[in-house]
Design a protein that fits this description.
The protein is α+β, with helices and mostly antiparallel strands. It has 2 domains: about 40 residues, no CATH class; about 60 residues, Glutaredoxin, CATH 3.40.30.10. Helices cover about 40% and strands about 15% of the residues. Helix 2 packs across helix 3. The longest helix is centred in the middle third of the chain and has 12 residues. It is elongated and about 55 Å long. It starts with a helix and ends in a 6-residue tail after the last strand. Belongs to the complex I 24 kDa subunit family. This is NDUV2 dehydrogenase.
């Protein structure tokens, strides 16, 4: 199910309910089962995203290494609030929990690309 949801999201840029219904039809499972999976995993976006989806990890290892300064720098540089999409639809900035690079904290992800050991110099 997850690969089909990922494919649908890549085709649409996000995961609309119509795509979830199609996945349920293809897999012959109840729609609710697909919706449960799509809402459980944060990698699935149930609303339109900007061209560049910036996900900033703020879990404990990243926070201890000053992920807050990354949040501030990115929101300022993109003129976009955390949890929102910029007016020009270029950026969507999200706070996420653990992207799996704790040993190289702090880190963030832009679309499918990971950036680790990031520090903001003020």
């Amino acid at each position: 199910m997850i690969p089909l949801l990922d494919l649908a999201q890549r085709q649409h840029g996000w995961l609309p309910i119509s795509a979830m219904h199609k996945v349920a039809e293809i897999l012959d499972v109840p729609r609710m089962r697909v919706y449960e999976v799509a809402t459980f995993y944060t990698m699935f976006n149930r609303k339109p995203m900007g061209k560049y989806h910036v996900q900033i990890c703020t879990c404990t290892p990243c926070w201890l290494r000053d992920s807050d300064s990354i949040v501030n720098a990115v929101t300022k540089a993109t003129n976009c609030e955390l949890g929102g999409t910029s007016a020009d639809k270029l950026f969507t900035i999200c706070e996420v929990e653990c992207l799996g690079a704790c040993a190289n904290a702090p880190m963030f992800q832009v679309n499918d690309d990971y950036y680790v050991c990031i520090f903001v110099i003020i």
